[in-house]
């Protein structure tokens, strides 16, 4: 699956945090300029590992990163950070794509992003809270809900369905003993066992992602903070 296929249909300025395919034999890119290791408005590095020069990256990774940057208007720092290990970059984003961009099941894109926000808050991951909070605002058209969930998900303006979904996701996140009662609560709100698998895989994958971000000291792009917070911004992101 090509980067172009993954980018197709995404709203302009919406940061794509997915990739997949990468079946071609890597070639060294001919481009010679480097991605910045710091944010434009700050001297603070985006992480503790250096970002490789483009000319030293495999071609397929450079191609995807450039497509993402053109489509969204900026390159999310997770791409830069993971490019330090090309094989791990491919594996990481391929699995992300499988669980986040699947078209079956009862979880909407907003549901998935809310799961990530809630579990990443528990895992104290600034990057994922900020980046996926932005994505939730865009998909849900609700500019404050993700912020409420970060502070206290039990007091947030959530439906019974959302509460059941997050309760299950957080049980997986905390490595609680999963019992039949957990599944019964989900089923009472219309989720089946396959939906439970989807919720659990997102929670589990992002527990790993949170720890990678923590280890490399990954910093959110400044662009994420204001995305989807006002009607004007939300309309721009959808154009």
Fraction of residues in H or I helices: 40-55%
What kind of sheet is the major sheet?
none
Distance between the termini: 25 Å
Whole-number average pLDDT?
Answer: 86
Instruction: Catalogue the unreliable spans.
Output: 1-6, 8-33
In terms of DSSP E residues, the strand content is under 5%
- Structural class of the helix and strand makeup? mainly alpha
Number of strands: 0
Overall geometry: globular
Write up what this structure looks like.
It is a single chain. With 239 residues, the protein is an all-alpha fold. It is built from 11 helices and no strands. It has helices spanning 3-7, 59-72, 77-82, 86-100, 109-122, 126-140, 145-152, 160-173, 180-187, 193-216, 231-238. Helix 8 (160-173) crosses helix 10. The chain is globular, with a radius of gyration of 18 Å. The model is unreliable at 1-6 and 8-33 (pLDDT under 50).
């Amino acid at each position: 699956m090509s980067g172009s296929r993954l980018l197709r249909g995404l709203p302009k300025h919406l940061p794509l945090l997915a990739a997949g395919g990468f079946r071609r034999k890597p070639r060294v890119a001919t481009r010679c300029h480097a991605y910045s290791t710091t944010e434009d408005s700050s001297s603070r590095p985006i992480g503790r590992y250096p970002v490789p020069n483009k000319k030293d990256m495999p071609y397929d990774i450079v191609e995807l990163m450039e497509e993402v940057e053109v489509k969204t208007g900026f390159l999310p720092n997770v791409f830069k950070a993971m490019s330090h290990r090309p094989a791990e970059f491919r594996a990481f984003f391929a699995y992300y794509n499988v669980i986040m961009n699947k078209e079956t099941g009862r979880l909407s894109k907003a549901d998935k992003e809310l799961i990530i926000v809630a579990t990443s808050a528990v895992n104290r991951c600034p990057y994922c809270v900020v980046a996926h909070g932005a994505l939730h605002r865009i998909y849900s058209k609700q500019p404050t809900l993700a912020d409420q969930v970060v502070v206290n998900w039990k007091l947030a303006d959530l439906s019974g369905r959302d509460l059941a979904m997050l309760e299950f996701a957080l049980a997986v996140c905390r490595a609680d003993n999963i019992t039949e009662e957990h599944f019964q609560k989900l089923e009472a709100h219309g989720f089946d066992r396959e939906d439970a698998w989807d919720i659990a895989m997102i929670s589990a994958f992002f527990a790993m992602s949170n720890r990678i971000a923590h280890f490399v000291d990954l910093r959110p792009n400044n662009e994420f903070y204001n995305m989807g917070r006002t009607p004007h911004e939300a309309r721009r992101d959808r154009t």
